Amino acid sequence: MAGISTRESYGKTLVELGKDNPNIIVLDADLSPSTMTHFFAKEFPDRFFDCGLEEQNMIGIAAGLAASGKTVFASTFAVFASCRCFDQVRMCLSQMGLNVKVVATHGGISVGEDGTSHQAIEDLALYCALPGLTVIVPADGIETAEAVKVAASTYGPFYIRLGRPKTPFVYPESYHFALGKAVTMRQGRDATVIAMGIMVAMALEASDVLARQGIDCRVINMHTLKPLDEEAVVKAASETGAIVVAEEHLAHGGLGSRIAQVVAREKPVPMGFVNLGDRYASSGKAEELLERYGLTAKDIEEGVRAVVKRKQDT
Amino acid sequence: MPNHAEPSSRLTPPINKSNLSVTELKEVARNLRRHVVKMIAAAGSGHPGGSLSAADIITALYFRVLRYDPHNAQWPDRDRFILSKGHAAPILYAALAESGYFPVEELLTLRKLDSRLQGHTDRNLTPGVEMSAGALGQGLSFSVGVALAAKLDRRDYRVYVLLSDGECDEGQTWEAALSAAHFKLDNLVAIVDCNRLQLSGWTRDIMNLEPFAQKWQAFGWHTIEIDGHDFDGILAALQECQNMKAKPTVVIAHTTKGKGVSFMENNVSFHGKAPTPEEAEKALKELG
User: Fold this and answer.
1) Chain A neighbours among B 64-93 (CB < 8 Å)?
2) What residue ranges in B48-125 does DSSP mark as E strands?
3) Do A92 and B138 touch (CB under 8 A)?
4) pLDDT digits (tens, 9 = 90+) for A189-234
5) Which residues pair with B191 in a beta bridge?
6) Prior bond to A168 cis, omega within 30?
7) Euclidean distance between CA atoms A304 and A274, whole angstroms
8) What angle do CA A174, A172, A289 make, to 5 degrees?
9) Residue B159, SS3?
10) A46 in contact with B, Cβ within 8 Å
11) B146 and chain A: CB distance < 8 Å anywhere?
């Protein structure tokens, strides 16, 4: 599979940004070899601060730097970037509206063997709950690079969730990222899969299989969860009459919840949800976990067949 | 590294209050305390105890020490004052108003709908307020970021942050304390308003902080202990910290909660309770 991890793309993009913009400061919490901020640290040691294992303090420091005019990237694992310092993010980033980009790696269960303590599956619910935050989950390394650049040049607090494993490319090098604008990866009339992150490649795979079965399935990459591209959701509901949301997250508060709210309000149609439900996963290889906990192309196919049937029954 | 010039050679504050005598500072503090009582009484809620304990420290800062321009609140070279104990917002608002950031009359809008003076500080609403606070324990971290920015930009402004003693229960305060020493932030001064009371009782009973000064020393801070109501001591401490190299300074200021109003002094019930109109009248009479 051709691809790189989204975290690796982030690390390299930061170096590029650092060359052009001396105002960029990067913080980490003793995880820089894993979050890949170590590339930046090596290139620009004066603009990199390791905050140690002090995630709460890191967010406060980031806010203080941003209040003094800096563009700050703060990185750690997604579990710590969300749950460990949520009050700090609420006060310093959401309420003060400061120019801090929390870029969190090792999101979802595809972290693998480290197990439940390290699998961020509630981070998007937490961040999406906060007024003023922009929340992004890129689908591959190319989209990551683009999203990180847009975050750097757009004032305000961002949360970008990245992953640990290599992720196949779903975009060509020429891809242009538009903040808050969903990408229709494939047209279709019978149903729409709206996915984010690693689920986008799986959704494309599922739509290939479904096509052979005579189901013409649209695939949308909803890379920006907040602000949500409601127009794309309503269009999908109107034109295809059935929606499946696929996300590496708990059932509640993430992409599925956000889309369901729009569908319920604007254009009710049968909906299906491919996610982790209301449970934690476990240790295991990433691919084993995705299969065990129902996050595969096959799960998306089944979801689509079910909503198409419901659509036909009504 | 920025050059820490001696105070005498620093820029003259646009509003020059640096010549106020201790007698005059006492008069300013008395006036600020009167504002606090009136504001909180008018609001019908608020935290008088922690505002009154910090009144002399804040007076010394705004009317003698800090470099700022009330007509240019975002002046990049201003000294930063960060109120981490956000519930003491009224004393900060009073100082800002008397310094010229906004009209004194506005003080009586405290906590009211559409007021710029929120119950706890909001940096996006009030001119001169550096940080939105209220969830305790976050101000020292924010201040570390501001002090780091000064180093990065080679600016010689100084960062003063006021903490409460109760707030030092919060683990984040100690994370920040570690990092300020680690980053050698000699442009950062933390002042702890040690009024010995927190919301529900004496700090020694709720969560004992002692040995307090030794903790800061062990965390790598230059530590000064003073009487937080003695202007000579406050000014000497704020002078002393300017000579520190490669180390942050903490000023442990021993204060009396509710200072200046006899029935509020050392009275935990006035941590977060407004005086009745009768109590306010009595308090104002005492303050003179």
Assistant:
1) 76
2) 80-83
3) yes
4) 999 999 999 999 999 999 999 999 999 999 999 999 999 999 999 9
5) B162, B251
6) no
7) 10
8) 140
9) strand
10) yes
11) yes
Q: Which residues are A271's β-sheet partners? A: A243
Q: Is B4 exposed, middle or buried (0-12, 13-18, 19+ CB in 10 A)?
A: middle
Element housing A76 (H / E):
strand A71-77
Q: How far apart are CA A206 and CA B263, in angstroms?
A: 74
Give the residue from B49, B1, B55, B59 showing the smallest Cα distance to B166.
B49
Residue with tokens 């290599």: A166
List chain B domain ranges. Answer: 21-287
Length in residues, chain A: 314
pTM of the model: 0.96
B170 with B136: CB under 8 angstroms? yes
d(CA A1, CA B145): 42
**A207-238 as b/e: b if 16+ CB within 10 A:** beebeeeebebbbbbbbbbbebbbebbebbbe
Burial class of residue B216 (count of CB atoms within 10 Å of its CB; 0-12, 13-18, 19+): buried
Q: d(Cα B243, Cα A23) in Å, to the nearest integer?
A: 29
Q: Is B145 helix (H, G, I), strand (E, B) or coil?
A: helix
| pLDDT of A258 over the 70 cut | yes
A97: distance to nearest CA of chain B, Å?
Answer: 9
C-alpha distance from A282 to closest chain B C-alpha (Å): 30
Mutation site, B1, B79, B143, B152, interface A, largest A CB count within 10 A: B152
Residues facing A273 on adjacent strands: A245
How many whole angstroms separate alpha carbon B117 and alpha carbon B39?
Answer: 10
Asked if residues A130 and A89 have their Cβ atoms less than 8 Å apart, the reply is: yes
Which pair of tokens denotes residue A291? 């299969």
pLDDT above 70 as % of chain A: 100
ipTM rounded to 2 decimals:
0.96
Q: Which residues of chain B are under the pLDDT cut of 50?
A: 1-16
* Residue closest to A183 by CA, chosen among A218, A217, A220: A220
Q: Which CATH class is domain B21-287?
A: alpha beta
Contact residues for A180 (Cβ-Cβ < 8 A; gap 6+): A134, A224, A227, A228, A229
Q: What tokens does B214 get?
A: 């030794």
Domains belonging to chain A, first-starting first, are 3-168 (3.40.50.970), 183-313 (3.40.50.920)
Mutate to test the interface with B, among A51, A53, A54, A61 (most CBs of B within 10 A): A61
